[in-house]
UniProtKB/TrEMBL annotation:
Domain of life of the native organism: Bacteria
Disordered, as annotated region: 1-23
InterPro entries: DDAH-like
A single GO molecular function term of this UniProt record: dimethylargininase activity
Pfam families: DDAH_eukar (PF19420)
Record GO biological process: arginine metabolic process; citrulline metabolic process; positive regulation of nitric oxide biosynthetic process
Protein name in the entry: N-Dimethylarginine dimethylaminohydrolase
Keywords, comma-separated and alphabetical: Hydrolase
Family recorded in the similarity comment: Belongs to the DDAH family.
Keyword Hydrolase: yes
Active-site residue numbers: 187, 281
Length: 292
């Protein structure tokens, strides 16, 4: 031990980058709502400015591009009928959390969005999914992220911390609370993306120091996004386990995902960023297979 070589130089083994694991896609079932009545008329988050005009046709064609991208990857997309007077209804992720065939309905913080919850409940009922009526404020998959057998739950701006315990009780899955601290990242799905059952990407500075520790403990291999990519809504992404659909502008994150074995698919959805949302916000996933 500790013996010095008595001749020449020591050759260190060449560090080979570990090969990225093979990533497998699983077919998903999504609910989306067309931006028929999309507009920015109030300020629910720092991205919204009613003085900036919205191009609804552009929003519709960008949104249709996302639907087409999911369908071309073999995913099922069911449409929720848009409600008049509900300019944010395109953000279907906020309408519920569905895990193991059980659903927790949403209870929106802002009165402007509250009527959306019942419209989601009706569609889920048509699809044979009974919805538990929530007691505490929660904005569905905006603040709840399913990672394998675990649910990560954001709080700080929208979803009440008490709703985390409520989700655990209703759905029978462990829920881990995470504290959000930056108003630009007001929902969990703006600063953390689920890539597969054991992998996430995130922007650490959007979380309290203690919550950062929690994420690092649970996901030592988490992919970290730059602030520029997080501000480009790069983490508002949807993955099927292999393909990761994310805003085209998040170029560093796309490269890092590719290096980790994923296939980034760039989506242009900047018209919806005027309301503070992108790919994930438009997408509610229905997980109907029962859990053990
Ligand atoms: N304007 C909407 C709101 O502030 C955007 C919602 C975005 N949805 C999401 N899942 N982050 O409520």
């Amino acid at each position: 031990m500790g013996a010095r070589p008595d001749h020449g130089s020591v050759t260190f083994p060449v560090q080979q980058a570990a090969p990225a694991p093979e990533r497998t896609a699983r077919t998903r079932h999504f609910v989306m709502c067309p931006p028929t009545h999309f507009d920015v008329v109030s300020v629910l988050n720092p991205w919204m400015d009613p003085a900036v005009p919205v191009d609804r046709d552009r929003a519709m064609s960008q949104w249709s591009g996302l639907v087409a991208a999911y369908q071309s990857l073999g995913h099922r997309v069911d449409l929720l009928a848009p409600g008049p007077g509900l300019p944010d209804m395109v953000f279907a992720a906020n309408g519920a959390l569905v895990v193991g065939g059980r659903a927790l309905g949403a209870a929106f913080l802002h009165p402007e969005r509250r009527p959306e919850a019942a419209l989601h409940r009706e569609l889920l009922a048509e699809l044979g999914i009974a919805v538990h009526e929530p007691v505490h404020t929660n904005e569905g998959e905006g603040d709840f992220a399913v990672v394998g057998d675990l649910v990560l739950a954001g709080t700080g701006f929208r979803t009440d911390r008490a709703a985390h315990a409520e989700a655990q009780e209703v759905l029978g899955v462990p829920v881990v609370s995470l504290q959000l601290v930056d108003p630009r990242f007001y929902h969990l799905d703006t600063c953390l993306a689920v890539l597969d059952d054991t992998t996430v990407a995130w922007f650490p500075a959007a979380f309290s120091a203690s919550s950062q520790q929690v994420v690092r403990t649970l996901f030592p291999g988490a992919v970290e996004a730059t602030e520029a990519d997080a501000l480009a809504f790069g983490l508002n992404a949807v993955s099927d386990g292999r393909h990761v659909l994310l805003p085209v502008a998040a170029t560093t994150l796309a490269a890092d995902l590719r290096a980790a074995g994923f296939e980034p698919v760039g989506i242009e959805l900047d018209e919806l960023v005027k309301a503070g949302g992108s790919v994930k916000c438009c997408t509610l996933e229905l997980r109907q297979e029962e859990r053990a």
